[in-house]
Automatic annotation (TrEMBL):
It comes from Nitrosomonas oligotropha. It is an enzyme of class 2 (transferase). S-adenosyl-L-methionine binds at residues 116-120, 139, 167, 182. The keyword Transferase applies. This is Release factor glutamine methyltransferase. CDD domains: AdoMet_MTases. Residues 101-190 form the Methyltransferase small domain. The gene is prmC. One of its GO terms (biological process) is methylation. It catalyses: L-glutaminyl-[peptide chain release factor] + S-adenosyl-L-methionine = N(5)-methyl-L-glutaminyl-[peptide chain release factor] + S-adenosyl-L-homocysteine + H(+). The lineage of its organism: Bacteria, Pseudomonadati, Pseudomonadota, Betaproteobacteria, Nitrosomonadales.
Length: 276
């Protein structure tokens, strides 16, 4: 194999994949940041580095998500380990974090529940930003819980506990001040499930029945048994599900029902407050 410099290796990869993807893969192989690539474009890769890089490039050509190839993804202001057992954290979910933090002033102690935690991105981010709160993270997948626990240890998050189970099944009698969730909300028949990164992500973290609302309906239906008076529920949902979510919240007598747009202007998070 002919030796290549950093700039030559990137140019070669960019014939087949996006430049940002190529850069992230090379940074991963070199265990270096973007500044290193810019500073040393003429640095010659070792044969082992080049082979590893081209292998990752080929896997990316075959469709594998960059986050799974590098084993990590940035979310909010933290970096999380990810693998095929968990959904890849996405920028639009950061809206859920922003809204949750607005409901919990710094210094206020409360109990937070994250349903379907996956990599732990939501739960850990909230726990790090509100260290005075007690955060519980639930997931049905033991493999996902293992990833989330690793992230919690790596990010030195101590006000957090994990529960393996389906939604509220293992939380009998427990109440929370705030419940958040990014549940599966893609319809089983949605063609997007067979496109892009979604082809490689765990189906149980993505799809939810014929209309994509089965998990959302289950969460809203059972939340009143686990929220304190004046507690809040916030849910991420699909681009066309805001009205349906608000209707479901209204049927369970939530008040202050609202929907919020992400940076693309799409209504992405809906929620409400429970008063009784």
């Amino acid at each position: 194999m002919q030796p290549l410099t950093i700039s030559q290796a990137l140019a070669t990869a960019c014939r087949d994949i996006d430049r940002i993807d190529a850069r992230l893969l090379l940074q991963h192989v070199l265990n270096a940041g973007h500044t290193f690539l810019l500073t040393y474009p003429d640095r010659i890769l070792t044969a082992q580095q080049l082979e590893a890089f081209l292998h990752l490039v080929q896997r990316r050509i075959d469709g594998a998500p960059v986050a799974y190839l590098t084993g990590e993804r940035d979310f909010y202001d933290l970096t999380f380990k990810v693998n095929e057992a968990v959904l890849i954290p996405r920028p639009e979910t950061e809206l859920l974090i922003e809204l949750a933090l607005q409901l919990i002033p710094s210094g206020r102690s409360c109990r937070i529940l994250d349903l379907g935690t996956g990599s732990g991105a939501i739960a850990i981010t909230l726990a790090k930003h509100r260290p005075q709160c007690e955060v519980t993270a639930v997931d049905l997948s033991p493999a996902a819980i293992a990833v989330a626990q690793w992230n919690a240890r790596n990010l030195q998050t101590h006000n957090l506990n994990f529960v393996t189970g389906s939604w509220f099944d293992e939380l009998s009698g427990e109440e929370f001040d705030l419940i958040v969730s990014n549940p599966p909300y893609v319809a089983d028949t949605d063609p997007h499930l067979q496109q892009g990164d979604l082809r490689f992500e765990p189906p149980m973290a993505l799809s939810a029945g014929d209309n994509g609302l089965s998990c959302i309906h289950c969460i809203i239906d059972k939340t009143p048994d686990h929220l304190v008076s004046s507690g809040w529920l916030l849910l991420e949902h699909g681009y066309d599900q805001a009205a349906a979510c608000r209707q479901l919240l209204q049927e369970k007598d939530f008040s202050n029902i609202c929907s919020h747009p992400d940076l693309a202007g799409i209504m992405r998070v809906s929620g409400g407050q429970l008063n009784f």
